[in-house]
Design goal:
mainly alpha, 416 residues, single chain, four-stranded mixed sheet
């Protein structure tokens, strides 16, 4: 094995071990007593259920990650990458189409082999803890729609990317960056109206107390309220959520029907105020800019490794290709991706705090956000005592106890 192979293999194992240590520390931290903040909300049985849910989901995640790593090494060192390449080259489809089928085949193989874990999580683990509402028909429909969208959107994008790097020379990374960015922005614009409704039904929030309260709040903070929708999240899970998607005239605020069913009007307006906080603080725009810059860096670094003979030698490849360069570079990129994900999680947690602050300082009943977070933590079986290392590495939202503590301090400060 040459230096590239050693670096990639070592990095993959190191990242797995770091995640393993983080998860084990998180499981040990979950044995802590129930935090004082939640003692009036949880029974011993309810808290024990949340701890059991964490144990089961963590074990499944670790087993799935270990399986993926072993599978990759077996495929790699048995010459699987080269065998697949030789097989597809036999069809004489041309380099771009061969590349589309090569990468598509690898992604399909990974999806098929991970399917048992998805099935177990959905129909066994989530069912056991009372979350699952997905029927086999809905599950199969989701798989089929995802596959069709991957073929209809992903395959042409991949072909365009491969063609750029094969034909455009030193400016290929710039063309790829610009082209993929434009398509990504277009998808962000059309997804709320054309793609997301393929999976869920979006119904405008009906007139009534909730809509009036939301409309009054939005007007008070000068938010251009273009659409509030109820999403039928209950057809897949009993878990509750809300989110902001799209931009411009296509932006949507979506409230899960499960959220509306289990929370008061004040709580729902507070949750919506949090989502509006993300928009007002330009978190969505910042996220898009960060993503675009990251994509540009990735394509530039990829351009430096296109056709690197040593990289292909590490994977026992007989032929050098653009599509092979893309696959092997992404494996080489693992440490950068790992570090970048931690940085992005830190940014996301910062944004969550800012959106919380916006909600409680602009909504006259901001304390309802605390009530909503407490109730959500109980209904979603949230881990109430996560380990700091696990939070640092994997949490996109601050732990609920820290969020509530900061919210209380903000409310006390605003009253004094």
């Amino acid at each position: 094995m040459n230096i590239f192979g050693s670096v990639i293999a070592g990095t993959l194992v190191t990242v797995f071990l770091i995640n393993l240590i983080s998860t084990l520390l998180n499981l040990r931290a979950s044995l802590a007593p129930l935090p004082t903040e939640f003692r009036d909300l949880y029974t011993d049985e309810a808290y024990g259920k949340s701890q059991a849910y964490l144990r089961e989901t963590s074990r499944l995640s670790l087993f799935s990650s270990a399986f993926d790593l072993v599978l990759l090494f077996v495929f790699w060192f048995s010459g699987g990458f080269n065998l697949l390449d030789q097989f597809l080259r036999g069809f004489a489809l041309g380099s771009v189409m061969t590349g589309v089928f090569y990468i598509g085949s690898l992604l399909l193989l990974q999806s098929v082999l991970s399917l048992p874990f998805t099935l177990y999580r959905t129909f066994v683990l989530e069912e056991r803890f009372g979350f699952n509402r997905t029927t086999p028909a809905v599950f199969a429909g989701d798989l089929l729609k995802t596959l069709l969208l991957s073929v209809a959107i992903g395959a042409p994008l991949l072909a365009l990317l491969l063609w750029f790097f094969q034909s455009a020379g030193s400016i290929a990374w710039l063309l790829a960056w610009g082209g993929i960015t434009l398509v990504s922005l277009l998808l962000q614009y059309v997804a709320p109206a054309w793609i997301m409704p393929l999976f869920n039904r979006f119904v405008p929030l009906e007139d009534g107390e909730l809509k009036s309260a939301i409309t009054d709040y939005a007007a008070g903070v000068g938010f251009p309220l273009s659409g509030i929708y109820v999403i039928d999240g209950s057809k897949r899970s009993s878990k509750a959520n809300a989110f902001f998607t799209g931009f411009g005239k296509r932006k949507r605020i979506a409230l899960f029907d499960t959220l509306i069913k289990s929370h008061s009007v004040d709580e729902l307006v507070a949750v919506l105020a949090h989502e509006i906080g993300h928009y007002t603080k330009k978190h969505i725009l910042i996220g898009m800019v960060v993503s675009i810059v990251n994509m540009g860096v990735l394509f530039f670094l990829l351009s430096l490794f296109i056709g690197n003979a040593k990289l292909f030698e590490a994977f026992f490849m007989e032929h050098i290709s653009v599509y092979g360069s893309l696959v092997f570079f992404m494996l080489l990129y693992t440490p950068v991706e790992f570090i970048l994900s931690i940085v992005l999680q830190m940014l996301s947690r910062k944004h969550e705090y800012e959106a919380d602050h916006f909600a409680v300082t602009t909504y006259s009943r901001g304390e309802a956000l605390i009530t909503a977070l407490r109730n959500l933590s109980r209904s979603n079986l949230t881990n109430l005592t996560p380990h700091p290392l696990h939070v640092f590495m994997t949490y996109s939202h601050p732990p609920v106890s820290l969020r509530i503590g900061r919210l209380r301090r903000t409310l006390e400060s605003s009253r004094s």
